[in-house]
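Example record

The entry below shows one chain as it appears in the dataset: sequence first, then structure tokens.
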Amino acid sequence: QVQLVESGGGLVQAGGSLRLSCGASGRTFSGYAMGWFRQAPGKEREFVAAISWSGDSTDYADSVKGRFTISRDNAKNTVYLQMNSLKFEDTAVYYCGARVVPGPYVYWGQGTQVTVSS
């Protein structure tokens, strides 16, 4: 079992920045690939970014490339999502997930709300 807790969400003006954190406890954090997803009201959950267990491989949704950066600190059992140049359409609940590649994401946090005012 891996327990995930997101933090860092809030209200920010368009063009601003936020950094989300996802702290993990339980089984060895470094053994898991991590991802960030988001869900806006009335929409399905969508992929935002992912990072390999070692941190040397990352992937991003086209909508956030060049604006968001995912990183991890295995010593602190934490994965981050730095979000810059935020847009109104980035408003959503952001979730972090954990998986053992090539399996699906099986562990999820409770989510943190990000609201971007236009």
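Notes for this example: The mean pLDDT is 95. The radius of gyration is 13 Å.
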